[in-house]
Design goal:
CATH architecture of the largest domain: 2-Layer Sandwich
Shape: globular
Oligomer: single chain
Radius of gyration: 29 Å
CATH class of the largest domain: Alpha Beta
Helix content: 25-40%
CATH topology of the largest domain: Pseudouridine synthase
């Protein structure tokens, strides 16, 4: 039977609303994320700046700085190639007399300005050292006129040295490698200047996963993805804008990404690029929050009163800070179920759950998933040719966004079939942590529901947890944070599994006293609940039993390791604190009329830049609810929508 959204919510501990609806408690209803443009997320950085894409080119560096860099790059031209007989002899020794003659004729044409922007590609050379010696030769001859430079042209598996002139009509030569990559040698020699320590920029994506967007950007730049850091992952189905830091990446290289012709990443852009000579990488949680614009379609006219009353209540009382359904996966097995098996060391079952797909997938994809599950469950010999072919076929068939599944298959092909831990370890770190975090989130949701079912929803009660410094209100999540900055040049280096610096401690928390409960001196907005870990305290009232009972039911002992694999063990989790209630800011509600059910109702940042107007009528037969609000980091907009609508909304997951 089809599981409803309400049933899925209850399975992960989401059971209550912060306030009841007016009158008969009716629901607003509506369709959530009918179009991905119905959900816009703009990150708010630690200074409170809202990310808004308004230019696709880099900010100009200070003029004097540019001049200094260009002056430093200039090489004084002392004589012509014709006058340097030794240079030609040296070149003949490197590339042979035939190729040397071609270069000489090309240089002579450039000197007469006959080439008009053409380049010369030498014969393919497989040995990197020999190509490098040719590059070094031309670099050492910058004092000869006309000035020449080189880059590497990649065509299939063949690599050739390409020669071009830096003067005359070739002055602005910007050749690129096959596959959209940028050849940094030619860019730097063309007076781009030194590469800055950091580039701060906005990552704009439409209907694309954050990790996939980062992966595509890193692939284009031909760098390790760890050099691109960001403060948090954003929803796939939506239009999102977030800050990123690139380590030792130039603004010019980033600008080229927007002009690429590659397919598959056309929904990802970078903008508001700024070169910095100092700074540090972004770590998980290095943001103040997110600003949301949400469109709910198909809302009935009579639902306006419920929505307006709910928004008023939301401004005053907030919402229960549940982890939304996205935290637990949108297809296949719930991510927290995978987390349970990883913590228990049931590697076969963990792999099987990761490989389970959606019911709506194409049959060939379902078959590919089942083939891999069979290989794992039956411990087939991955060195036998039929099994390898089966796995290779599965790797080709699985969709591009099946990151974890593809990592497992690749791991099986390259490692001992019995070593499933090695295959699991190839999954990107943030994805692996997601499974453990999802289980923590499931425990937190269940504890939050029990706390508000059994005790006051207005003030703290005896045994509740609050921070010792009550001014330190956890708007969303409070991680352990070190006083010193994190390591430069990598995303979330030296972090534990909750995104915290490994050596740091969580802020001090204490228990509420009986006297404080009786006097009602601490508001409900100060109450925090733990995501279980080695550094967290637990409430001393009945809520601690929720954690104990669920952990026992799932067969997990947080104080004793079930296996020796640290990254999947309870010891690797420092834990965190999360506020029970969250009160959004900048809350507004509006009602829109429209006719076409698929009509776009919000103009995106990219459309504004490209001056693409969306035709909008003021009247129509259909109603939509437009919500805007700002939340602290790691809070779920879907839970705000749920609170306003007083019910589960279609498309909520």
């Amino acid at each position: 039977a089809m599981v409803t959204t309400r049933e899925r919510e209850e399975q992960v501990g989401i059971r209550l609303f912060r306030s009841e609806g007016p009158g008969d408690g009716g629901e607003v209803g509506g369709i959530f994320k009918h179009r991905y443009t119905d959900f816009v997320v703009r990150e708010v950085d630690l200074k409170g700046t809202v990310a808004e894409l308004n230019k696709l080119v880099a900010s100009e560096r200070p003029q004097k700085q540019q001049q200094d860099e260009q002056e430093g790059d200039k090489v004084e031209v002392k004589k012509s190639w014709e006058e340097d007989v030794d240079a030609w002899k040296e070149l003949d020794g490197l590339v042979g007399m035939v190729e040397g003659k071609r270069v000489k004729e090309y240089v002579q044409s450039c000197a007469k300005k006959e080439e008009g922007g053409a380049t010369l590609v030498l014969e393919p050379q497989a040995e990197k050292d020999k190509r490098a010696s040719v590059h070094r030769f031309f670099k050492s001859k910058q004092h000869l006129s006309p000035q020449m430079s080189t880059d590497t042209l990649v065509e299939g598996d063949k690599k050739s040295v390409r020669v071009f002139s830096l003067s005359g009509s070739n002055k602005d030569h910007r050749k690129r490698k096959r596959g959209g990559g940028v050849d940094k040698r030619s860019l730097r020699e063309l007076g781009q200047g030194k590469v800055p320590k950091f580039c701060r920029f906005l990552l704009y994506k439409e209907n694309t996963d954050t990790q996939y967007a980062i992966h595509m950007l890193a692939k284009h730049l031909r760098i390790n993805p760890k050099r691109l850091s960001y403060a948090g992952t954003k929803d796939k189905r939506g239009v999102t804008v977030q800050w990123c830091m690139g380590f030792k990446i130039s603004a010019r290289d980033l600008e080229y990404y927007n002009r690429r012709k590659g397919r598959g990443d056309h929904n990802v852009y970078v903008g508001n690029i700024e070169e910095l000579d100092d700074g540090k990488s972004l770590g998980l949680g290095d943001l103040k929050g997110n600003h949301f614009v949400v469109i709910l379609r198909g809302v009935e006219e009579k639902a306006k009163a419920i929505a307006e009353a709910s928004v008023e209540s939301l401004r005053e009382k907030g919402f229960i800070n549940y982890y939304g359904l996205q935290r637990f996966g949108t297809g296949g097995a719930p991510t927290h179920a995978v987390g349970i098996e990883l913590m228990k060391g049931n590697w076969k079952q963990a792999c099987k759950l990761i490989l389970l797909g959606r019911d709506s997938e194409l049959q060939r994809i379902k078959d590919a998933r089942q083939d891999v599950i069979d290989v794992i469950q039956q411990e087939m010999n991955t060195e036998s040719e039929p099994v390898r072919r089966k796995l290779q076929d599965a790797l080709r068939t699985l969709p591009k966004n099946a990151f974890a599944e593809k990592c497992i298959v690749s791991g099986l092909l390259s490692r001992d079939r019995r070593n499933l831990v090695a295959a699991l370890s190839t999954i990107p770190r943030t994805l692996k942590l997601m499974y453990i975090h999802a289980y923590q989130s499931y425990l937190w949701n269940s504890a939050a529901s029990k706390r508000l079912e059994d005790f006051s929803g207005d003030h703290a009660v005896e045994g509740d947890l609050v921070f010792e410094d009550l001014r330190q209100h956890a708007q969303g999540m409070t991680y352990a944070k070190a006083e010193s900055g994190e390591a430069v040049g990598g995303n979330n280096q030296s972090k534990d599994s909750n995104g915290a610096d490994a050596e740091a401690a969580l802020p001090a928390a204490r228990h509420v006293t009986k006297e404080e409960e009786d006097n009602k001196v601490i508001g409900i907005d100060k109450v925090i609940l733990p995501l279980p870990g080695s550094q967290t305290k637990y409430p001393t009232n009945a809520i601690s039993k929720v954690y104990e009972d669920l952990l026992a039911e799932d067969g997990i002992n947080l104080k004793k390791r079930a296996h020796k694999v640290y990254e999947f063990s309870s010891e690797s989790i420092a834990g965190a604190y999360r506020s029970l209630i969250n009160v959004p800011t900048d809350v507004s509600v509006d009602f829109l009329k429209y006719d076409d059910p698929d009509e776009q109702l919000v103009q995106t940042d990219l459309q504004k830049i490209k001056k693409v107007e969306i035709p909008r009528k003021q009247e129509g037969a259909r109603n939509a609810l437009k919500l805007e609000f700002t939340l602290g980091s790691s809070c779920y907009a879907s839970m705000v929508v749920r609170e306003i609508c007083k019910g589960s909304v279609e498309g909520m997951s």
